[in-house]
Each structure stands twice: as C-alpha cells, then as structure tokens.
Design a protein that fits this description.
heterodimer; A: 287 residues; alpha/beta; 10 helices; globular; B: 180 residues; six-stranded mixed β-sheet; 6 strands
Chain lengths: 287, 180
Amino acid sequence: MTLRLGRHEFADDATLMMAIVNRTPDSFYDKGATWAEDKAFDRVAQVVAEGAEIVDIGGIKAAPGVEIGIEEEIGRVAGFVARVRAAHPGLVISVDTWRAEVGRVVCSEGADVLNDAWGGADPALVDAAAEFGAGLICTHTGGVTPRTRPYRIEYDDVVAAAIADTTAYAERAVAAGVRREGIVIDPAHDFGKNTFHSLEVTRRLGEMTATGWPVLVSLSNKDFVGESLDLPVGERLTGTLAATAVCALAGARIYRVHEVTETRQVVDMVNTIEGRRLPRRAIRGLQ
Amino acid sequence: MTPQRVAMIPGVFALRAEYAGIEDPIAELRAAVHEAVSWLLQGTASDQDIAVYCTDQQRALAHELLAPWGCAISTGGDATVVLVIANGTACRTEKAPGFYDSRAEGFDAMLAEALSQPDPVALRDIDLGLGREMLADVEGVRALGADILTTRHRSSVLYDDDPYGVQYWVITWEEAADGH
C-alpha cells in the first residue's frame, strides 16, 4: 500500500528509517544527549544526511519518573518541530506522544505523523490526526498505563492480541477521518510485554504484515535484546540488527532507530536477498 | 482443623519453566521455594489434600510446583497442609516494576513483622487497597490471618529480599506440637 505520511508519499515497496530524536533530559539510550535544542537540531541534520526519511521527536521518556504535564511536553517539542519543519521541508516529522492536545499543537507546527507509543491511551488522538491530515502509528501495549513497566502480564496469544488491538485502533482511526494510507501498526516491542512476548512478536511478525497494514518496528537497544544476550544498553547494536533482519524478512516497512546507517544496510541487504530490491550496482562476473 | 504445616512463597513468573533462561536470575529464591515446598509436602500421602491460596493468575505456578508430588489440590476447607502464594510491594526502588513509592518499605516492614510473629489479627486487617496500589500480591496474606495461622504456629524465614525492587518472602509455619 502507498504510504501517505502528512504531505509525503512513499511507494508500496519503500522501507523507511525513522530516526529517534529525543527532547528529554533522561531517555534510556541517549541520556539527554539531545536535550539542548541545538544538539537536537544537529542530530536531525545528521540523521537526514544518513538517509533517514522520518524523524521521531519525543518529549517524555517511556520509563516511569517525574510527571511531565501537557504544557511542559508542548514546550519541549512544539517549537522544535517548527524549527525542523522550516529547515527540512522534505523530511517526515513524527512526534511521539499519546496526548491529543500535544498532537494538535505539533501538527499545527508542521508535524506529519503522530506516533502513539501507548496504544490509544488518549482516545481523542485520532481526532487530532484526522483534523490535520496527519499519519498515525497505532501500537499494542496490552492496555497498560503510559510510562509503566510490564509486571506479570500474560496473553493467551501475544501476537493475536497485538494484531487485534492495533488493527482495531487503525479502524477506529479511519472511522475518525484519518486517511487509511497514513496509518501504520506497531507491535511495540517491550511495551506491556516481557522478553518472551517481544521475541514471539519478532518471530511471528509475518502474521502482522499479512494483515495488509504497514508495520513499524521499534527494536533499537530494547531490553528484549539486552536480556537475550545479557548486554547493557549501549552494547545492543548487533542484537538489535539481528532482530531487524528478522523483521525485514517478515516485511516490516518502517524501522524506528537510533542508528540509521547500520539499520538501512541491514534492511536493504535482507530485501535484496529476498528479491524485493535490486542490488545497487552489479558487474562482477557480468562484464 | 488448624493446618499443621503452612508455607508462603512469592508468585514470581520467573519460577515457571516456560520463562526459563540460560542463567537463573532468581537462583537463591528458587532454592528457598523448593526447600519450602519439599518441607511442606514431606510425608504427605498422595491422597491428602493440599490447600492452595492464590490468585487465578498464580494457579499455573502452584500446579507446576505441586505436580511432581502428585498431591490433590483443594481450595481450602480442612486441609492440614497449606500453600499460600503472595508477596510484598513492587515499588521499592526506581527500577522496580512499579517505580519507587516511599510507602513501600514501611508497608513491607509491617507485613514482615506480622508474618514472622505471626500476628493473625494484623494479617487479617492488612490494607489490601494500599497493597494493591503498590502492586503487592496480598490476598493470600489476608487469608493467612483470617483462616490459616494462629499464635500456636512457629515461623521459619527461608528468604527475605527484594532483588528486583519487589519484596519476596519464603516463610514456613508449623503448629507447635505442645500447643505453645
């Protein structure tokens, strides 16, 4: 399906890199590296140069902590969205928020996509996306409260649950007026899931891509990688790329990442192996 | 009839075989749990009922631990052997599942004291709502106070720690033979 994210269109077979740019002092991986706005702006320029089609700007870390109210979240992201919009007109700007009020403000500043990492916690977010013609990422979290950790969660079938919840959210978005071509589903690794759940979602991602909805995966440096290999944050790139390859094989369309270059190479290599992409330039033995 | 032998273990999912990893992140706890269950069931006839007090979510763990012993599991009544699955708060550190709650340590300390004495009245009167706010699994603790333990029981604490920000205890109680 052609993807329409805001004013930007992508062909049926395009895979996209969504680079994470946090506007937080305390996110788990970058630990405030882009908290200063100029640093964040430099990071956007860097990932654009690396080929990222999308930047995902977030104002609140996913882990529990100090409450960040709506006004503060808007303060962290809205002005920055406007600045990035002006500097990079061809770039898809996604904002990682579950709040409709934040969604409205950032869309008015030029955001193209609302990335709801918390599975529809604010049911009005679909209305914000519809009002501004924005795209929407629909995640599965098992209904947990935003910024909580999974604790003794069980599913009869985590993949069936992820598909049911994300596709229901997607259809709710369509009913609210969000363009069907702008909706993406995301199983949300580790959100409302333990390591075994995230591994199973990865293993069976093909069932999610088979729904026909474009699938986004956010694997980068996640705890399911860390627990599988017993490696701390900062040493999980190889494991992340292995999971990326499995998801690429299954047909994921969008990859939410810290490392754009490495992920792009892995996804392109997998898709070339699968025959979905031509080699860039082949002449060896063909002269 | 008062149960002669009672054991309490925490309902940690990682105790279940389906969540096994290459390394065991709860090896000491697991050893204490198996010691408690072994003590609980030693000398128990295969047709003797074992009463299990736990939430529906914890039944899988109970069955997994008791299955090798071939005992019949009942939901209460006059069983002389009782297993309770319960644990304290999950809010003891910033990395805990429930993040940090300043009330957690005091709540767990009160519970630890009541469990070890034992104090059936304090256990029966535990504030379930407060416990649930801090993700404590304490339904079984109330049953210990209301239906199971008496002041004639003597406790033995096999495990008391919070390795992942969740308070775990493994405790056994045996009714004193002379009634004191």
